[in-house]
Amino acid sequence: MGAKLQAKTEMPGVDRPASDLALGTAFYRVQDRELCFRILDDFRSYGGTLIDSGRLYGDSEAVIGEWMDARAARDEMVTITKCGHGPDGFLPAEDFEDVVTEELATSLECLRTDCIDVYMLHRDNPSVPVARIMDRLNREVDRGRVRALGASNWAYPRIDMANEYADRHGLKGFVSVSNNISLAVPTGPFYTGLVSTDGAGERWHERTGTPLIAWSAQARGFFVGGYTTEMRERAASIGEGFTRRMIDIYCTDENLERLERARALGEQKGGVSATQIALAWLLHKPFPLLPIVGPHTPEELTSCVEATSIQLSEDEIGWLNLEC
């Protein structure tokens, strides 16, 4: 394996650095453990340390826990999992504290660990006061069952509110954020409650130095090239579902032009793919950005790892984003 990942991003409270890429595992299933184990093995061999999961991600936690146990790899990995899932996917307002208790206990059991490195809240509910949230989560930090806290799909003013409350009361704040960002700019949330990082959010990360652990970093496969102007023109006949949503969210003239430019630049750089160029574009941001990639095969993982070594100039970065 020639390509390697670097593990250099530090998060307060976490005792080992996070790798350039986070391995996304939302689709992992126990019946597919052989393939999942192979991808996890390769990720580890490449120098990967950051693994992303969530309580509602199917069998993800169970597969990761079984793999870490079988490979004695727990002490090498930085584990992320997410909690706070109410019946509609958002933080529950009435029984938030109890939901954390139940979900954390299950996550620890499935991951076969006594401590989660970064415990994230998934999809904010602004009706829940930040005081309740930070007080409850800090109890788990104090107990040693959670090392650090993160926010997934949270607006930046709410993160500031939570961190300011934590600072005033001598508590731990959020040390990382997991929102969407990609070269392809979505027209809106792919699903209700999802949050993308815009220009103001990028400036927030640059100012604070807080790592952005970016989901859908490759725009859900948009840069593979399966979505076209022709598909957009017949979108009404496609009906509802994932494909229709991809057309609605990503098939703008601007994004299709970004795709064409990524293809052209990839050819200039020796035949790398548009998907690899889109990933490399993210890795040149002027703040810590750790893209979550979700390879379904070892070959897809290799492609992602190789993208981390692609160098882009400032002019190329701006050109890809239609700035010139």
Provide an overview of this structure.
With 324 residues, the protein is α/β, with parallel strands linked by helices. It has a single domain (7-223, 276-313), classed as NADP-dependent oxidoreductase domain (TIM Barrel, Alpha-Beta Barrel), CATH 3.20.20. The chain has helices at residues 33-45, 60-71, 96-111, 130-143, 156-168, 199-208, 229-233, 235-238, 242-250, 253-268, 274-283, 298-307, 314-320; strands at 7-9, 18-19, 22-24, 50-52, 78-83, 116-122, 146-152, 174-178, 212-214, 289-293. The chain has an eight-stranded parallel β-sheet with strand order 8-7-6-5-4-3-10-9, covered by helices on one side. A two-stranded antiparallel ribbon has the order 1-2. Helix 4 crosses helix 5, helix 10 packs across helix 11 and helix 11 (274-283) packs across helix 12 (298-307). The protein is globular, with a radius of gyration of 19 Å. The two termini are 37 Å apart.
Largest sheet, strands/sense/barrel: 8 strands, parallel
Per CATH, the class reads Alpha Beta
Overall tally of structural domains: 1
Compute the number of helices. 13
Strand content: 5-15%
CATH superfamily: NADP-dependent oxidoreductase domain
